[in-house]
Amino acid sequence: MDYKELVAEKIQKNINADLQLDFIEGLIEIPPRPEMGDYAFPCFQLAKALKKAPNIIAQELKDKIGKDYFEKIENKGAYLNFFVDRNIFIKNVITKILEQKDKYGSSSIGKDSNIVVEYSSPNIAKPFHVGHLFSTAIGNSLYKMMSFEGYNCTRINHLGDWGTQFGKLIVAYKKWCNEDELHKNPIKELLRIYVKFHKEAEKDPELNEEGRLHFKRLENGCREEVELWKKFKELSLREFKKVYDLLGVEFDSCAGESFYTDKMDAVIDEIDKKGLLVESNGAKVVMLDKYNMPPCIVKKSDGATIYATRDLAAAIYRKKTYNFSKCIYVVGMDQSLHFRQVFTTLKLMGKDWADSCVHAGFGLVRFADKKLSTRKGDVIFLEDLLNRSVQRTLEIIDEKNPKLENKLQVAQKVGIGAVIFTYLKNNRERDIVFDWNEMLNFEGETGPYVQYSYARGKSILRKAEYIDSQADYSKLNSKEEFELVKFLNNFRDSILNAINKLEPFMVTRYVIDVAKAFNKFYNAHSILNAEDEAIKFARLQLVKATCHVIKNGLNLLGIDVVEEM
Ligand code: ARG
């Protein structure tokens, strides 16, 4: 049974208006303070339909609604406050979790919607850097949450594998590449020559011209250029795969920018036929001044296509292929204008589905005060960052629990989990400033803290000799127990909120809350040495339920749990 649904049903049954259950459910709030009840229903929005003042509606509802499952229902002003019958509530919530286990929190509400989630999308021949992890972590967890709620999701890695930079890279390769280094350490070598290219081009602008020429040749399918490009791509993908394997991230399609090379002419034609194509300084553009935006360039003066053209083609292709009801682009906020231009151009082309394309932007990632830029070469490689986190976690474990088995495996999960957690802890538009001590603190609001809470729960369950008695949930009557169960019950709500706002942090915060409530419960009450067997058994069931929820929650963030740490 879902309590929110129950409240909604009660209201629906007793209100003199034809209201959808979903609508009512959407209005129900979870009050911040216990004295305001466990659920609250504000009546403001019903005033118009019922032609009555909200406080009158609340008063009338209160008198009509049956109290079963609730200890009391109060009305305060325009609010109807529901106080659950704690005994029944605790029993229902725990039983449901123990029945549903890994499925607890899931649903099938998305079963009729196809969703495209585009994330990660690093650039070939360039480092997979800390900013790309932002996209990767958010996209991966949105994918997991939406799939968990039944949405039919397709994961796309829109690789940056096309563009004038490949012309430059080809020039750089021919002039300066060290083949040995390239095979030993592909991205570092490709980055070295790319950086060198930019330095040299400052002195000798001719190089840029050469680069453009080579990209043109690549677009025209000239053999030498295509072979080199393929080589860069294969080497890069091999490196990216290492990072994806560390993170446990996968994709359904890696159709990157190059995939659209043969699909762009049709798009430009269509734009032209709609009368939207304008010539500007030799380039072909779509004017967007009505929307207060610079024009969207679709073809440069040398005839080469650009980033935006490929995005137009990609959106149209995705709509045709996946018939999405939403296409989510998890890309940094520095590209906001680009996406507004692309979406507006689609709209002007008559694609009314353009409104279902959403840019889920995110902020910057900083270490102290260094801004990360590829061109100057001062990037932090993600693989190094992840490995460093694992290494440091290993040191902490060595200190705290030197006898632990499978130390390295545990450090892998905890170290990588800590990094992902840091990315998903705050709303995505907020910048991240990396701080090792904060990130790996076992006591703070961190990944390790939540993982540690889970491992602690599991260790209690391992130590418990299971007793063959019925759990008497009525014995779970302390404040801490009720608070914990309340949090456990809110899991699905936090997932749905995260999906609605495209904000995984809502689940991150949620698992922190559960871990905190669990620790409060654990510190206030004996579990293994409980007053009697029935209480002990009931508490053990609560521990077990908590572990399920933490595990499911962390998994939705793309983080593995460990049984011991
Ligand atoms: N490759 C780009 C970058 O690293 C991100 C691609 C974003 N996706 C898109 N459809 N334009 O900045």
Strand-helix topology:
Elements lengths: L2 H12 L6 H7 L11 E4 L4 H4 L3 H11 L5 E7 L2 E6 L1 H15 L13 E5 L11 H19 L3 E5 L7 H13 L2 H6 L1 H18 L2 H14 L3 H25 L16 H10 L3 E4 L2 E4 L9 E4 L7 H16 L3 E5 L5 H13 L8 E4 L4 E3 L14 H19 L6 H17 L8 E3 L1 H4 L7 H17 L15 H11 L1 H11 L3 H20 L8 H25 L8
Parallel strand pairs: 4-5, 4-9, 9-10, 11-12
Antiparallel strand pairs: 1-3, 2-3, 6-7, 7-8
Bound molecules: arginine (ARG).
The site of arginine has 9 residues, from loops.
CATH class of the largest domain: Alpha Beta
Give the C-alpha Rg: 28 Å
- The coarse overall form would be flat
Q: Give the full name of the CATH homologous superfamily of the largest domain.
A: HUPs
Termini separation: 35 Å
Quote the average pLDDT. 93
CATH second-level architecture of the largest domain? 3-Layer(aba) Sandwich
- What's the total helix number? 22
Structural class: alpha/beta
Helix content: 40-55%
Low-confidence stretches: 371-376
Q: Strand-residue fraction?
A: 5-15%
The structural domain count equals: 3
Reported for the largest beta sheet, the result is: 4 strands, parallel
The counted number of beta strands is 12
Strand order of the largest sheet: 5-4-9-10
Subcellular location: Cytoplasm
Catalytic activity: tRNA(Arg) + L-arginine + ATP = L-arginyl-tRNA(Arg) + AMP + diphosphate
Protein name: Arginine--tRNA ligase
Family: Belongs to the class-I aminoacyl-tRNA synthetase family.
